[in-house]
Amino acid sequence: DQEAFYKIYSDFYEQLVRISKDEKNNNLTELAAQIKIEDASSVLRKDLIQNSKKQINKFSEELKLKGMNCAAIKPDQPSDTTPVKPPTESPSKPDAGSDIPSETPSKPVSAIKKAMEKVLAVSYQSCEVLKLKPITAEIPPLEGVKEDCCYPDGIGKLRTIASLKEVQQTHYYLQSPMTGDQCFAVRSHPLIYDYGGRPSYTSGTLGKLNFFKNNGGTNVLGYDCSALVYTVLLGGGFRLKPNKPFVASDVIAAQSRQFINPENNGWSCLKKITMTPTQNLEVGDIASLNGHVVMVYSVGKDPFGIEKLDNCDLVSVNDFDFSIFQSSPSKDGIGINVYEARDYLKTSDKMANIFIDYAKNACLSRKLNKEIQLQRTEYSIIRHQDTGDCMTNPVAFEHESCVVGSCI
Predict the structure, then answer these.
(1) Which pTM does this prediction carry?
(2) What's the CA gap between 99 and 101, in Å, rounded?
(3) Which of 56, 90, 121, 281 is the most exposed place for a label (fewest CB within 10 A)?
């Protein structure tokens, strides 16, 4: 039995090394995590996933024949806990000057919106950040961050803090952190944009995410765009696949390209959005291309500004009425932020093209009175299904007690 188990392990390792060489990625931990969540983005990956399943199933059957059919606790939940879909609640009235929740007042705050709010508040150890307006073009850039080239992939820039004082004075989200024994001193150790960065994590079914311990990227605290989306999903208890474990350590597998065609990985909890004459963009939608991924944080009554359009070709980002949640190098490296879409998209042509494409087709859906689902290969907007089998126990965050109970 030990020899059979070792063969499974050694075969897995050999194939993983082969993938590592083929993809020129020496991070075996990251690759193994991506195989675990069944990221089948290449033939070699698909082969490894299928072969591993066959070997494990065969080994399991052999053990059963030997009377070793031991009952096991499902790996994604403790034995005394039943995962439940997070409840929705009616929103409280926003504070004066706050326009972040632009949903209709009578509409309940969705579970995924709550998950985004929790990530934002815990990351900055602040309840006040939830009251701030989305970033606009007029907000001054962050100062005190130094950029160097480049990350090992030759794409991402390396960012370090050159002047802590300047970062403290100019960071939009660092002005009102909470203090106390349960809080992290975020002003002394601020999060900025860290390409390749991930939250640190503890392993196991009850593992936690820690935003305040460096993991990847440079030596600064912070994490990148795909890690943010994973963190929201993990923190809200949103699975990628029905009844499939999704735990804190999976955050290391995050890649923006995974969200373009989730069906290729069997991630059936995520579906490409379908635009109808009365419905298009929603809070929590995920827009991605190879290189960046964002989430929709808030929407107005007419997110794409199409209700009064006679010509769908006249769609313009200037008329968009929604905000996005992302980790980005915007404003010279700010990192985790909520940004007014009409302003952010003027700084990112590729992301703007995604939303313009969807906006034009949402307009056509209204004009033609029919449903439209786009099948693009280079980008997409997807939505979590939040059905019972796509929900699990939320992953906890270190230092979340700083804000949980106060505003979360």
Answers:
(1) 0.85
(2) 6
(3) 90
Specify whether the CB–CB gap between 362 and 304 falls below 8 A: yes
Residues 351 and 295: beta-carbon distance below 8 Å: no
**Angle 291-376-388 from CA coordinates, rounded to 5°:** 85
Strand partners of residue 276: 279
For 258-266, what is the mean pLDDT? Answer: 94
CA–CA distance, 114 with 121 (Å, rounded to integer): 10
The count of residues in the chain is: 408
Residue 177, strand partner residues = none
Peptide bond into 407 cis (omega under 30): no
Cβ–Cβ under 8 Å, residues 241 and 269: yes
Whether pLDDT at 93 is above 50: no
Among 327, 331, 332, 335, smallest CA distance to 162 is for 332
CA distance 158 to 217: 8
In which band, very low, low, confident or very high, does the pLDDT at 240 lie, cut at 50, 70 and 90?
A: very high
Location of structure tokens 């083929």: 22
Helix axes 43-65, 2-23, angle to 10 degrees: 170
Burial letters 67-93, b for 16+ CB under 10 A, else e: eeeeeeeeebeeeeeebeebeeeebee
- C-beta pairs of 178-186 under 8 Å, 24+ apart in sequence: 178/125, 178/126, 178/127, 178/402, 178/403, 178/406, 180/402, 182/399, 182/401, 182/402, 183/125, 183/399, 183/402, 184/125, 184/212, 184/398, 184/399, 184/402, 186/124, 186/125, 186/126, 186/212
> Would you say 12 and 52 are in contact if contact means Cβ atoms under 8 Å apart?
yes
What span, in angstroms and rounded, lies between the C-alpha atoms of 170 and 253? 32
First to last CA, the chain: 49
CA distances from 71 to 39, 138, 243, 251, 379 (A): 28, 59, 17, 28, 42
pLDDT mean over 262-284: 95
52: tokens are 């591993």
How far apart (Å, rounded) are the C-alpha atoms in residues 292 and 295?
11
Q: What's the token pair of residue 55? A: 């070997």
According to DSSP, the residues that pair with 397 across neighbouring strands are: 209
Q: Which helix (H) or strand (E) holds 321?
A: none
Burial letters 360-377, b for 16+ CB under 10 A, else e: bbbbbbbeeeeebebeee
